[in-house]
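Apologies for my clumsy wording, but are you able to produce some protein sequence, whichever is easiest, and the tokens describing how it folds?
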Amino acid sequence: MRNETIAIHAGYEPEATTHAVAVPIYQTAAYAFDSADHGAALFNLEAEGYRYSRIANPTSAVLEKRIAQLEGGVGALAVATGQAALHFAFVNVADHGGNIVSVPQLYGTTHTLLSHILPRQGITGRFAESDKPEAIEKLIDENTRAVFAETIGNPAGNVCDIEALAKIAHAHGVPLIVDNTVATPILLKPFDYGADIAVHSLTKFLGGHGTTLGGAIVDSGNFPWAKHAERFPAYNKPDASYHGLVYAERFGRTAYIERARSVYQRTMGSVLSPFNAFLLLQGIETVALRMERHVENARKVAEFLRKDSRVAWVNYTGFSDSPYYPLVQKYLDGNASSLFTFGIKGGMEAGKTFYDALKLITRLVNIGDAKSLACHPASTTHRQMSAEQQRVAGVLPETIRLSIGIEHISDIIEDIDQALDKACRSARLEAAE
């Protein structure tokens, strides 16, 4: 099946009792056991089924199957937020200690997770000087547990060379974990290029309506955990909390995602509610159509800004002079992301005036909404980073991040135009004074 069909049908057929066409919301905390032995088999991971909604829920299971099929993976785990998904994805490879080697262009909270939070748990985040494969390889050593990248950086907009990063990671015996939130599997399927694990904030483009928090981890099933037993003992030695179960032996290709569910979802409890799973499924049904309009509108806005004398610079990878243009052609089939940044002549103050003057475009820190959104990253999403860390991540003091929505393009451009007028008028008055 193609993306458009998967997004509507995958993971669900009308259930036997009512034949409901829409996925039911199973608003229950727990599930009845047939017998004591049935309950024991479920808790020992010897039988498939539901035991408690902290671990699995039928509504969430449809969402997991649908996302896994969109990405081309063997399984997925839906959790409460994208950040919870990232946390689980990292600790699930490095809970015995070690380091995660990452590109520097990251969402601000992800940078904080790697630089400040995980080190308290014995896991070090190592940030390369750039997203180039050779910069990543310099930092990999015997204690590295994964390489990490955002397929499209937020807010930098950089496009990572997934195939090259995967080859380097695999040459050193570690998986490549990617955050595919901005691209979505509609624009890019990272498993096709060697990535092993994909992470999503479902809150963004996949959910698409800015109403619902959610996250997901998707397992390609391709990383050979048993082959690298010394580096990944958690998959190859008996787990005392499950009576000596060995994940690589019991689950084979699904070892990673089954361990994430059985160890981290079960004990840490970052649970996605059934109602949120239902809402996210509604968003996913239209994601392929929305991404077409997002991409088309963003291209027109970027072209408008580039031609405007009031604008100092536009960082849009769909321009042929962008250093990432070849990667956009290779990985995104020429469809540059609807997330990009720009700066106004007059610097930070002019940028703030522009930002405050927006009427249609909403000022907030979310992305991937059907609505057009704007953010000033230096003062919000990346505020906890130093000025140098911000610069390396693609954030300048005057940077405005746009997430272009699916409204009529003329209305979007008219709002930007009037805000630019006010920003430049303010800058001229300041210069005259």
Observations:
- The chain has 17 helices and twelve strands.
- The chain has two domains: 3-283, 287-432.
- The mean pLDDT is 93.
- Residues 409-432 form the longest helix (24 residues).
